[in-house]
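fold-stage: in
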Amino acid sequence: MKTLKQYILEAEKKGIAIGHFNISNLETLRGIFNSAKKLGVPVIIGTAEGEQNFIGTKQAVALVKSLREEYDYPIFLNADHHYSFDKVKEAVDAGYDAVIFDATGMSFEENIKVTKQCVDYAKSVNPDILIEAELGFIGSSSKVLEGIPEGVKITEEFLTKPEEAKRFVAETGVDMLAPAVGNIHGMLKGGKDPALNIKRIKEIKEAVGIPMVLHGASGNSAEDIKAAISAGMSVVHINTEIRVAFRKALVKSLQENPDEVAPYKYMKDPIKAVENIIEEKLKLFSNL
């Protein structure tokens, strides 16, 4: 089987993107995998620190690896938004396929320093592991929001700057970059998220020359996501929309079956709700 990097580079050449979807439980993983397998496209499973702690680091690796081996299928595991070298090291040592080091709370110089430390360690353990970094703050919570998260500014002067991105990539050696281009983590309660800055995506892509990742795509319009992929995004992250769909379906299932106590029975509808969301997103990302 090809490596995750090879699949991402193929997507980049085709002008499409690979879907990255976060999980907190086996049911969500099953829903994501079912849809990816149905469409025959590679998929990335993500666990941020909280999700990873809930599932278990080694358990998350084992779950994804079991699907990959049983079905000979390109499903990969990413340690999403890890905030320290120690947490990155934990994911690398456990066998994750990729790790995102998020140092947006640090200064630019400190971000470069610790990101390079993460890259150097990861490559010494497994040359095929991908290290991604985030440059520019887009918030940190995958939930339904009343408004733009505190500290996030989406006007042009606050977005990731191409010249800084170029220097950052050159000095850290990261495999992928997640820039701030008008995107926000979570999704707005009142409707669609603000439009992405497609022009800035193109400028950053030209400057860095490596695959880029769109975070916080829950709530963005299909048109915006397609334009972002055409402009240079090769991986697209969705989390909040999955959580919302799963929770709504679970609540409805429990209300309609108040006496049912077997989880494998009342979890069928939530899994199907996840499948529907994932199928819609994967078709969009892959132009299917």
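fold-stage: in (second)
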Amino acid sequence: MAVRKFKIARGIAAFDFNDHYAVLGLPLTADNSLIRSRYLQIAKLLHPDVCKHSRVAEAGEYLSKLVNPSYNLLTQEKERTEYAAILKLLAKRLMKRNEKLNPESAIAKQLLHNPSTNRYVQSVQEIAELQYADLDRVLERTESLSELNLVYVLMEEGYQHNQPTEDTTVVQGQAPAPPSQPTVVSPAQLLVKAEQFIADKQWTMALRDLRSIIQADPTNSRAHALLGLVYMNQKLSGMAKISFQQALKYNPQEAIALQNIGKVSEGDSAKDKIKKGGFFGWLGGG
């Protein structure tokens, strides 16, 4: 069997990364219990002892060469934490290079134009239901999942996709319409929006607005505290603690930071553990 059979080439995988979540048909938000239950679902489809595919040997190879390695990595807490940090570094590097995201799959394009954590999770689930049902389409569907994951990890870092420009066609005999003025949203208005996104658990959207607030007003203690809350709910305890500390630096009485800073452990930054060179050299350069 050709080596290509067990490799995907779009989405996160396009940058020489193994997309372990895509292989298992999981969103990047999946926890241990979801990882295990999803693996058992796939094993029931592919394991030679219970496989109902006519190509039993091929199904077994997908399980042993593609699925099992990803499952083994994601069930190790340290490996999964470091893998998450690597994906964040990938997203930061792509944004620094002003890379424009152009996924092939329609479902990833929809997420790109209408980012939402709920929509992302639902889209992953939609593809995962069929992922291993047809062996001829395993890679195609896994690549679509990897594109969804790439869109999500970029959106989590505040990626803004350029919307199509307005139609500027001039009708003969008619003066062109004046360009529309952009709506100016104040930090206070953005803060209200961010709080609503947090209440709705729309972490990606809240993250985007909070970063915009802090860029405009770096000493906004409430924005820092809310950012810490978002990071805490994303299980990024180190970044959450830094945000809470920033909030208390600017306002020692910031209630959200005071209530939550004790809930996040200091931990070791997975980013600090990643060494430059070799596989990680692409990430390390300036």
